[in-house]
């Protein structure tokens, strides 16, 4: 039995009776004073010590965040006195922080300075201030990893109307085109003269060279080459392959002796004047595909064409796919170099 109920019982008993009484065990006498309670039974005494006062010792948790204008906490009496005379409040009113502005991100950190109402009474368990709600953080924009373009292109199309096309695709699909290769280019869709060996000691040594700059084989059946005379020389049953050359000589033996290789075609009958002449190449429809003149042309008919070759040298187109229809496409005094 707890001491406080026992003490109350004994004091009440003494106050009412204040007498002794007899029993089978002997005379019992109770007396009370301010210091202690003594119980005497037939000459023996038992001293009951005074009751100890219980002092409340309340400890509280931190205040919660402000929600709907209210903060809460839990408080407990560590001495377990079972009384609530000194119990601390477990709820209090508060002001919620203002929401951050949505329109101006540059002043976000300045405007989020609302101070939360501090609780009136701090927890006794420590000296820490109640934590205030943190200001909302700005969303962070992640910088995407750099993407390196990897362009792969298909083959060039056939030359049509002086233009070739192709398709290029970025294998990494970066969505940019800073390094994208060209998908179209100017091209030549016709056969050209590329080298002429005209200034020789023997007319049998003369030869010319043609070049096909397209990516398509071209049949030369019915094509003609004409000099300053009115009668053209016609090619029969010959094909010049894509991106390839065709040499045409007057005499195959002389050509082989000079160049060390065999000509593609022999039997050319047009004489090339050493002191000026010109050549015109035409397709079967009579359309001119190329023209070249040297040393002003025959009888000075083409004074703007001043390229020339000394004895044993040639004139040569450079680069082979350049065609501005002028002497600037050609070089003078070149070492013979046909592609056989």
Summary?
The chain has 340 residues and is mainly β. It contains 3 helices and 24 strands.
How do the strands of the widest beta sheet line up side by side? 20-19-14-13-23-24
Which stretches of 5+ consecutive residues score pLDDT under 50?
A: 17-48, 106-115
**Largest sheet report:** 6 strands, mixed
Q: Helicity, in percent?
A: under 10%
The helix count comes to 3
CATH class bucket of the domain at 192-334: Mainly Beta
Overall body shape:
rod-shaped
What is the name of the CATH architecture of the domain at 192-334?
Sandwich
Can you count the beta strands? Answer: 24
The structural class is mainly beta
Share in β-strands: 25-35%
Radius of gyration: 59 Å
Q: How is this structure best described in words?
A:
With 340 residues, this protein is mainly beta. Among the domains are: 3-48, no CATH class; 152-187, no CATH class; 192-334, Sandwich (Immunoglobulin-like). It contains 3 helices and 24 strands. It has helices spanning 3-17, 108-111, 252-259, and strands at residues 21-23, 26-32, 37-41, 44-48, 58-60, 70-72, 75-77, 91-93, 151-153, 163-165, 168-170, 184-186, 192-197, 207-212, 218-219, 224-226, 233-234, 239-240, 244-249, 265-266, 277-282, 288-294, 314-317, 330-334. It has a 6-stranded mixed β-sheet with strand order 20-19-14-13-23-24, with no helix packed on it. A 4-stranded antiparallel β-sheet has the order 1-2-3-4, with helices on one face. A 4-stranded antiparallel β-sheet has the order 17-16-21-22, with no helix packed on it. A hairpin with a 6-residue loop joins β16 and β17 (233-234). The longest helix has 15 residues, at 3-17. The chain is rod-shaped and about 160 Å long. The N and C termini lie far apart (128 Å).
């Amino acid at each position: 039995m707890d001491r406080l109920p026992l003490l109350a019982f004994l004091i009440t008993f003494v106050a009412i009776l204040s007498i002794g009484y007899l029993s089978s065990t002997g005379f019992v006498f109770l007396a009370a004073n301010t210091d202690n309670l003594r119980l005497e039974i037939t000459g023996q005494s038992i001293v009951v010590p005074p009751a100890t006062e219980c002092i409340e010792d309340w400890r509280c948790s931190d205040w919660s965040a402000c929600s709907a204008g209210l903060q809460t906490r839990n408080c407990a009496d560590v001495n377990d006195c079972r009384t609530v005379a000194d119990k601390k409040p477990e709820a209090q009113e508060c002001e919620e922080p203002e929401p951050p502005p949505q329109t101006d991100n540059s002043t976000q950190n300045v405007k989020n300075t609302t101070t939360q109402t501090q609780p009136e009474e701090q927890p006794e368990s420590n000296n820490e201030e109640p934590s205030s709600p943190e200001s909302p953080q700005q969303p962070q924009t992640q910088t995407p990893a750099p993407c390196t373009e990897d362009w792969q292109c298909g083959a060039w199309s056939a030359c049509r109307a002086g233009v070739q096309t192709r398709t290029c695709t970025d294998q990494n699909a970066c969505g940019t085109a800073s390094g994208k290769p060209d998908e179209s280019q100017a091209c030549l869709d016709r056969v050209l003269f590329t080298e002429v060996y005209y200034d020789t000691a023997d007319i049998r040594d003369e030869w010319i060279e043609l070049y096909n700059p397209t990516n398509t084989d071209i049949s030369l059946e019915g094509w003609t080459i004409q000099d300053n005379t009115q009668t053209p020389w016609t090619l029969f049953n010959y094909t010049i392959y894509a991106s390839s050359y065709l040499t045409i000589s007057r005499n195959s033996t002389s050509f082989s002796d000079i160049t060390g290789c065999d000509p593609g075609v022999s039997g050319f009958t047009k004489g090339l004047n050493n002191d000026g002449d010109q050549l015109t190449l035409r397709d079967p429809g009579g359309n001119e595909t190329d023209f070249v003149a040297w040393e002003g042309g025959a009888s000075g008919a083409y004074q703007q064409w001043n390229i020339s070759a000394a004895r044993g040298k040639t004139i040569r187109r450079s680069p082979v796919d350049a065609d501005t229809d002028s002497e600037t496409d050609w070089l003078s005094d070149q070492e013979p170099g046909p592609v056989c």
